[in-house]
Amino acid sequence: MTKNNKYMHIYQEIADKIQDGSYPPNETLPSENELAEFYETSRETIRKALTLLSQKGFIQKIRGKGSLVLDVSKLSFPISGLISFKELQGSLGGESQTIVYDFGLIKPDKTLAAQLGCNQDEEVWKVVRARNIKGERIILDKDYFLKKNVPLLTKEICERSIYEYLENEMKLPISYAKKEIVVEKCTEEDRLYLDLDGFDHVVVVKNYVHLEDTALFQYTESRHRLDKFRFVDFARRKH
């Protein structure tokens, strides 16, 4: 195993232990010397693994105290990226499943037509899906696609990955999205399709998704249970 592979292996193993609770939040990791002895490697390799753990938000290095384990029980969803749930699944940890509750063609009401920038006589695909992660339904995705851009859609596609189908099979050039994040009171639909665990508000991420030619073709409301998610981005101050 090369040095690069070695530190990545150590990083992944410690990250897995933090995620499964073997290293609980607010406790310190073993010292660099102890980890170097355990993994039969140099302190330099251990430091590289710990630096990556720090950059990824698993630990906080504190001078004189070591590496403090941070609470990673909340799942991270990038704000600025345009990424499908299937593409995120590998980083979520634990089993995840998509459940399609509502699917079909509709005529949009006035509010939805305004969100999509279309006429009320245009046909729109409506897809309502819950995301079950580690046995709890904690995201409700409500997707609306203009049929003129997406002529065919099936429930089976919605259970797998709509974006995978649109990009790989339909060759649709999905380009960018405008996002809006708000906190709203739970609706009856939220109560029906989510395991709310007593919460009466949800975080709602509204996505207005455009093609390369700037045409708006999708409006989405992604409704998240409050306690399970943090939305992350990377920002650098310009000087």
Fold and architecture overview:
By secondary structure, the protein is of the alpha+beta class. The protein folds into 2 domains: 3-69, Arc Repressor Mutant, subunit A (Orthogonal Bundle); 75-232, Chorismate lyase. Helix content is 30%, strand content 34%. It is built from 8 helices and 10 strands. It has helices at residues 3-19, 32-39, 43-55, 85-92, 110-116, 155-160, 162-168, 188-193; strands spanning 59-62, 66-69, 75-78, 96-106, 124-133, 136-146, 174-185, 201-211, 216-225, 229-232. The strands form 3 sheets. Strands 4-5-6-9-8-7 form a 6-stranded antiparallel beta sheet. The chain has a two-stranded antiparallel sheet with strand order 1-2. β1 and β2 (66-69) form a beta hairpin. α2 crosses α3 (43-55). The radius of gyration is 22 Å and the shape is elongated. The chain starts with a helix and ends in a 7-residue tail after the last strand. One of its GO terms (biological process) is negative regulation of DNA-templated transcription. Residues 4-72 form the HTH gntR-type domain. Keywords: DNA-binding, Repressor, Transcription, Transcription regulation.
